[in-house]
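#structure-requests
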Amino acid sequence: MNNKTKYKKNIIKSDERVIDVLNKLDLLDIKTLLVNHNSRYLGSITDGDIRRGLLKNFALEDPIKNFTNKNSRIVNYSDYISKNYNNIAGLDLIPVIKSGKIFDLIINEKFDHSSDYQASIEELCEVVIMAGGKGTRMQPLTNLIPKPLIPYKDKTLIEHVMHNFTKFQKSDFIVSVNYKADLIIDHLSKNEAISVKKYLYEDFPMGTIGAVHQLENEVDKPIFICNCDSLININFHNMYEFHNKNNFDFTIAACKDIIDIPYGVCAINEDFSLASMTEKPQINHLVNSGLYLMNTNVLKLIPKDKKYNATDLISDCSNHGLSVGVYPFSKESWLDIGLLSDYLAIL
């Protein structure tokens, strides 16, 4: 089997929608796609190309050809046969082009040896897990056990969150606690695979982000903030690079959600005459997942000893002229267990 066959999912058509391509990228080991137009090679696309296009106000419904890098590196067939090529350093996937078409693919050796390879975020950022809530939407289960310690498969919820970060060599965490804090601290102290280097104690419920104020003047790296019941399995290093390269102060990880309307939808004019009708349209949303990445300069906006939510902080960032970005990811990468019905549905 040649690489073109083995990695055929990395080859797409130029008329595919951006939102569908983003979903494909999330599910692939190699985050580069090769775009064909009328069966001939057009160029390459990465999630970085797409995000830059979205920043230029391109739309998720646009065809991917509008985002394609048409000057991507290639290897000509003659050079491939004679092994006379040296322009592939640092690339994950390079097409071999014969008569304008993809003949084969050259794959970075890291993907040949290990599909589990991930770039490290260990020295780049801090990770805070918000675990202080009472879990009222999970009652009566949380009357007995705090939500972070609710079991799912072979781990508790909070350990699943931590595990997703350990794939990127992050092994030490900061955890906010309030409700049944002693149970959480005791349980995590017995897990030798992870380390909690600091607990943020809430004397009262401080909202979804209020406890993070305690880190002001204590950290000097960007901070991931996530909920203990939101299992998000994305490439955190890619999100960090997106945040950093675009000079955002605060980045929201947003899930791409598609709603299918099973009916024809009417648009009308001011006089109630029909303007247009769309048969069974799809509505695309970017849903706030509760995962954030923020720079340390944002910490000063969080008030001390006050209930304060992430939505408050996002508004305050905008009001103070700080830049807020949105990092889209696939719905398949998110398991939200905020409700008791959500939990029962996955058992």
